[in-house]
Amino acid sequence: MALPLGIVATFGNLNLNIPKYYVDYYCGDYQLGIFSSISFIVVVVGAYVMEPVFSTSCHRLAMYYRCDRTAFKRLLGKIVLISVANALSTSVVAAIWGRQILSMLYRPEYGEHPVVLALLMATAGMDSMAFALFSGLTAARRFYTQMPISLVQLATTTFACTWLVPRYGLLGGAWALALGALFRLLAYAVFLAQVLLSPELEPVALTPTTAAVEPSEC
Fold first, then answer.
1. What is the domain range of residue 161?
2. Tens digits of per-residue pLDDT, 114-133?
3. Structure pTM?
4. Is 218 a domain residue?
5. Based on C-alpha coordinates, what's the Rg of the chain?
6. Burial level of 70, CB count in 10 A (0-12/13-18/19+)?
7. I need a surface site. Which of 10, 21, 72, 102 has the fewest CB within 10 A?
């Protein structure tokens, strides 16, 4: 379990940094600083808004998958809806007030890139939705389906950076991340659909530890 999830995490971190390498090479240190600063806002929003939701629901998802598939689908649906709401709200805020947010947090020249912020926020929204699906796959113990998805996402982002960053600069880097995130979201949706459509197993008995955590479930 630890090995595939560790590889997925490594690919994910590398995927986030690939556009920065291209921006640095083609656009220079100054543009890289702007891109990194805008990306930092997105990381902070994701960490403080969605991370608590995922961290508190993973154990319960795994338990429900083993003993109550209906409850599993219901909880997973709630997590996905929260992710969608978060994606839409942050993207709308970035699209409307992106220039003001960047100018206030940094300097006026950062406010010249509101589209980059909006696109990165949309990417973060897709990432949060993908992570919600990832939580479902992890609960279903579909670990080894996640490694090829992460590898292809990394390749997608890299190839997109090769094409877009030399032509569009920071915006090209943001588009590359968005394309990689879109691929991962769609791939996770396909694999999770297979899980949800698979025949349900017989409920398993709760262990004393699990029963102590959720005594009224299953």
1. 2-212
2. 999 999 999 999 988 998 89
3. 0.85
4. no
5. 19
6. exposed
7. 10
